[in-house]
Amino acid sequence: GYDVQEKIDYVFKVVVIGDSAVGKTQILSRFAKNEFCLDSKSTIGVEFQTRTVTINAKLIKAQIWDTAGQERYRAVTSAYYRGALGAMLVYDITKRQSFDHVARWVEELRAHADSSIVIMLVGNKADLVDQRVVTTEDAVEFAEDQGLFFSETSALSGDNVESAFLKLLEEINSVVS
Ligand code: GDP
User: This protein's superkingdom (predicted)?
Assistant: First the structure.
């Protein structure tokens, strides 16, 4: 019978990292299922979600890993980063501390992940315009300085979530092929 699995050209592992409560789980569920879950911690225990997309005529299965709340309690282990070709590094535009910690997350990636990993810096909760404390300019400057791609998203409205993931997957595709 017809099996869509047979037609997959690549599987790309992507990890989602960043401080607790910045919206990592919601971004992932928005991209994988086009959902925003009000009961956001229902995903604890789920290790990854997948979505298959077409990029440059290749069928690519994105296997996207969530820390499932573990970032709260201990350093994310190197097993989490093993084989990852991309990372979504998320902060919350309304929480200065989550942006201040981005440099630490980059160090963690440089220490544990493959050196060719493609990193997308994501300023989430862009819908909360009145509560913004991290300017787009500051984030762009940091991203350029560190060689990261950058996007501002809202998992709530869905704005830019798809384009941020697709950009990351396109860049990974151009690295591997
Ligand atoms: P995680 O700990 O990084 O996985 O964060 P969650 O995905 O659990 O989200 C933390 C909280 O922020 C939850 O109450 C979400 O409903 C909320 N949240 C996540 N993304 C957004 C967003 O884009 N906009 C707004 N307004 N709230 C969000």
Answer: Eukaryota
